[in-house]
């Protein structure tokens, strides 16, 4: 997966790592294993809880523990310091529960000694649950109930993004894949007919069909999984390829960047948060955001990560993480912070649960071959596609009601609020993103068959036969605890 790197770049990165200091980190994580989208409400499973807790524990050992391998400069190791960390998730049961599970791994209970407070009258008070630590979780409206939503753009509330994604269903590529894949979907009708009718079992519902079978293959007993023998490894792989194809094309299109609105908002949130670490001289150190895979896919396309590896055309597995590290090789002291000329950003990705035996991989951003990127280069690259203000969002989405009604008259001056990454400009904060999420949603009418529609998979490549479909690139389910047959 690192074939795009030159040997010299890798060698330089290896030499720099020994002298490097991590100043701050931004983590965007997908939720853990859940029940199927097609049988709402979706809920985090015990397996999913374990996955995000395991990932949180890994990132503790990487960034927070006193003996962490890449400890964030000045980060509290045992007792959480609220000013150092910001955690957020949409108003969604699966995502919020995943965030709390992750945070438990990040800052576990501190025991009787640290988790005890003596009052003025001499009374000793022990923190419940062996010193369980409470970390506030900010909630945003963007992505509300995304794990119960069958339609990707339904949670973005962005009219132009919805229109753009709907255009995909009229494309020659979609229709060709739809027709070529129909025999495959006909063959799986006996496995899904309690949820999907025969007329609904087609490429139009590629993700929800695969998702239902994936969940069943992990959790269902033989009595609750009719005709399970029909789900051979070959059939499962083809369904996964088609789901990736479907989802990626709903989340990103090179000629219509508005389709990737969630990735554009994420890009600005990352820049704004890391810039706050710099401008506050490290008072804010760690940001953790939980969200659906749609935002990941959108960002993959916008940041041209698909050039670094074809795996980025695929749907990230449960508990996958995108990580941005703010690093420097300059001397760092309390009260003396490096200048932006001495700061760089490293991007890492891990598909699925992160652990000591399965760690994140470094990738170059924006189609280049350099990592980490100097701060200014990183900011300039992100600013090429990020949405930086509420007015920009309203203009790009074509929304003119709700909050956008007051923004439309002043949209001509919105460019002045662009965040240059060096002076703490006015980006979309989690709170503003939450307000945006409450805007009026464009109704999506695609006919009776569009009962369930979803986020995106692989790049559309014209395929004439199902045998050709088997050759597509995707993030492989092989070796992933959430994408294997049980």
TrEMBL record:
Residues 1-18 form the signal peptide. GO terms for molecular function: phosphatase activity. This is Lysosomal acid phosphatase. InterPro entries: His_Pase_clade-2, His_PPase_superfam, Histidine_acid_phosphatase. Keywords: Membrane, Signal, Transmembrane, Transmembrane helix. It comes from Cyphellophora attinorum. The chain crosses the membrane at residues 435-461. CDD domains: HP_HAP_like. Belongs to the histidine acid phosphatase family.
